[in-house]
Amino acid sequence: MLYESTRGKIHSFSAPKAIKLGMAPDGGLFVPAEPVQITKQQLNSLVGVSYQEKAFYILNLFLTDFTAAQLKESITRAYHQKNFPGPKIAPVKKLNAELYLLELWHGPTAAFKDFALQILPYLLRHAVAKTGADKKIAILVATSGDTGKAALEGFKDVEGTKIIVFYPVEGVSKIQELQMVTQEGSNVQVVAVRGNFDQTQRGVKEIFRESPYLLPKITYCFSSANSINWGRLVPQIVYYFSAYLDLQKQGEIAPSEEINFVVPTGNFGNILAAFYARQMGLPIRKLICATNQNNVLTDFIRTGFYDCNRIFYQTISPSMDILVASNLERLLYEVTGHEAVKVEKWMTDLQEKGCFRVDEEVLEKIKAIFWSDFAADEETLTTIRDTYRQYNYILDPHTAVGKNVHAKYLSQTGDTIKTVLVSTASPFKFCPHVVKAILGEKATQNKSAFELLDVLARATSLEIPPGLKNLPQKAVRHTLVIDPAGMKQTVINSLTS
After folding, report:
1. Tell me: the pLDDT tens digits for 285-344?
2. Global confidence as pTM
3. Fewest 10 Å CB contacts: which of 12, 162, 329, 385?
4. pLDDT in tens, 369-417
5. Cβ-count burial of 121 within 10 angstroms (0-12 exposed, 13-18 middle, 19+ buried)?
6. Looking at the annotation, which residues are catalytic?
7. Which domains are seen in the chain, by residue range?
8. Which contacts (CB < 8 Å, 24+ apart) does range 468-474 have?
């Protein structure tokens, strides 16, 4: 399987080379040059096999330059009992007759990013070896909360790498921030940026574009742990297959029965993985894109006009506080039949004008697959409260956005086919808002986010995830705060010190 850039100037790159680079040299994103298909017979053969076996089967279709031994080693070292304790790595829980929850937060950092960022370091190490590179790898990450900690945990002390994570000041939850700034590891650096996630992400992309000229004498090459890296995106395809196959094994759906997925969405990577699963042949009818008040994607899916010239809101679902969704570029490339000229023009307009409009034909193709709506903060809190009262089930704010949007989808379309809601984070990561929703405002007064971990645990009889316990007792190791303009120099300083 070869890879090419969405900007049309890079072709015939191997999977190891694409993963090592992260972002294409022409500024685009790597995508498979040819479609990958799975037959009904092949799909049915995976019913009942382990998550690790499913992962091998799917990854082997995309990463054909990796040997079976390399893939199996990477999968075994990523998806094991210590990282993902419990009987299931990605359990599917039934909420009611129509709605199921795919819990993706049983990993080391209690968020769905663990599924990609526990395996990416091993894939990257093999990629570097296979491409004959003699430089160390500098991993650059922009995070709106969960990617940062998951990447730090995955890459800490990995030989031959340095990882630098940038996050927006006041743009992540207090627990997410403390998870990052207390990170141990000889090769890690965490930097707060005075700005929002879009400014932080833009700074990282600019460093990638300038990397050939930025550090010509440094023994590092750049790569990314964001979902702009295909090696980060492709493992996420696996859990959509896993959810479907588990429902089939449990007798909840018949073979080849269509279902919907609801995906809380910010940077468009998670729902794009579902799109690729659908393109491969997984029986998905609709992908429901759930956004918060930063509803640029909802407006785009409805109108075909992408406009980030709007107010940026800091919400209670901070991992979705994004106006520039990087992975939308990959979707546009796919639905236009790989028309790179169109995609490059739209991305140039977005960069220069902050907006672009697709043609009607492209919009209709998107609408045939996607449906979208958004939930404001008050709706999100109400959804958390009502779900707890009705089902005794605790949602984090991002998953609550998804459930609220699913209710709107049912109301507006009448489509009652079985649906899987992707649950992206443990409610404990956002316990101030969750406690407020289920116990009321008074329960949160005069208590820190960390004290509220215990409040939530006592109220619900749930266990605090291991990665969140004792956070306040950990030493803060990273205190650097910079303006967006200082990101480039920070990277230079880090790699030359």
Report:
1. 999 999 999 999 999 999 999 999 999 999 999 999 999 999 999 999 999 999 999 999
2. 0.94
3. 12
4. 999 999 999 999 999 999 999 999 999 999 999 999 999 999 999 999 9
5. buried
6. 113
7. 92-110+231-468 (3.40.50.1100)
8. 468/110, 468/175, 468/179, 468/426, 468/428, 468/429, 471/175, 471/178, 471/179, 471/182, 472/178, 472/448, 474/178, 474/182
